[in-house]
Amino acid sequence: MSILFTQYWDVIPGKWDEYSEFVSNDYNPALERLGIKLLGGYYVAVGEGPRIIAVATVEETDYLRKILATDEYRRILARLHQLVMKYSSKLYVSSGRVKEGPYKIQMGAWKFNQYYNILPGMEEEHYKFVKEECIPGMEKLGVPITEGWRLVIGSGPQILAECTGRKLEDIARAIDTSEFRKLVRALKKKYATDYSSRILAPTGRIEVPSLLSQMLKGF
Question: Which domains are delineated in the chain?
Fold first, then answer.
């Protein structure tokens, strides 16, 4: 089962250059050494902040707890806190209802994420609605639901429906349709509460180094 470790923050005004150098040269490599596999860095283009979201995966929850308790992680996180504000983190597990297999880096992918809580007593009806209407509906609109997540550690809505588009225009075109509005109205009216959404732009800070690393393996 995929486990997603997400971190959120804003960069302190005036510290962007120092932050950029630190994240690329120190923070991201430290997480990789510790066993936290980075999957993507995103900027919230539309929706509530914090504006920076770092996405990673780990093998299991207990493994992550051990990593977070190490001196190396505490030191590197303390250095990050000198450059950012509004930091928080969350841990999600895959719902297992969208796809199976490992969660991998997606090059240049934009994300349309929907967050909500399921109304009490409507879990099975919600699952049926997602399977029979949301998944095929978003696929038809060109912004498929590529994973469903359930929050296990952290605050906020318990469900994350992650949709993927190749560019901002794909997402904008999809959500500006009567078909999408119909799906969201049905979701909020019958199955969910505390609904919100974000459009995330890829920063390339994680994806590009990964691509270069893969290319250099052949040399």
Answer: 3-94 (3.30.70.100), 110-201 (3.30.70.100)
